[in-house]
Design brief:
heterodimer; A: about 110 residues; mainly beta; 11 strands; B: about 110 residues; six-stranded mixed beta sheet; five-stranded antiparallel beta sheet; about 60% strand
């Protein structure tokens, strides 16, 4: 079974530039999460989708972050404009039913 | 406020020296507690799910236990390849709350 795919794995940008991350979930997993993990910290939820609808985006900085999930499958997370404090690993996770999350390898963002 | 606290933040063990990692939580309506392993530059990898107090799960040198307020991850006779960050997470249904992790280093 293929895992959660994320790209790009690494991205370096200047502050105020924009960046987009892509996630392809495990086939059949209806629930998709984007997490932000700052070095030395645990993952922090940004947004949760159930199919293509948003379940929880209460911690998403909506002035600069946006996310969508097309047709309930792939998802993109965009940051525009980026700030220095956005430097982190962005993790996509999916879930089929009540149970564990399956994570991708993450996309590491460095904002200079 | 729902919270997950892990201790210690970092742990250095000699190969073969057994120890335990702690995860304490304060959430309403626990629906499950999860342990993950995270290697540098990788996403978290699922280890165990525990659902009710008294439950135990084992995998190789790892054993996870759960009480009403905390969980322990026991590592028996660790090897250098067990070096990683171990994350604890709890769920109340849809929401997952993660701790900050314990960074384990096993010295040969």
């Amino acid at each position: 079974e293929a895992g959660v795919a994320q790209s790009p794995r690494y991205k370096i940008i200047e502050k105020r530039q924009s960046v987009a991350f892509w996630c392809n979930p495990i086939s059949g997993h209806a629930t998709l999460y984007w997490y932000q993990q700052i070095l030395g910290q645990g993952p922090k939820l940004l947004i949760q989708f159930q199919n293509n609808g948003v379940v929880d985006d209460s911690q998403l900085p909506k002035d600069r972050f946006s996310a969508e999930r097309l047709k309930g499958v792939d998802s993109t997370l965009k940051i525009q404009p980026a700030k220095l404090e956005d430097s982190a690993v962005y993790l996509c996770a999916t879930r089929w039913a009540p149970g564990e999350l399956f994570f991708g390898e993450g996309s590491r963002l460095t904002v200079l | 406020e729902d919270q997950v606290t892990q201790s210690p933040e970092a742990l250095r063990l000699q190969e073969g020296e057994s120890s335990s990692l702690n995860c304490s939580y304060t959430v309403s309506g626990l629906r499950g507690l999860f342990w993950y392993r995270q290697d540098p530059g990788k996403g978290p990898e699922f280890l165990f799910t525990l659902y009710s107090a008294g439950e135990e799960k084992e995998k190789e040198r790892l054993k996870a236990t759960l009480t009403k307020k905390e969980s322990f991850l026991h590592i028996t006779a660790p090897k250098p390849e067990d070096s990683a960050t171990y994350l604890c997470a709890v769920t109340t249904g849809n929401q997952f709350y993660f701790g900050t992790g314990t960074s384990l280093t096993v010295i040969p």
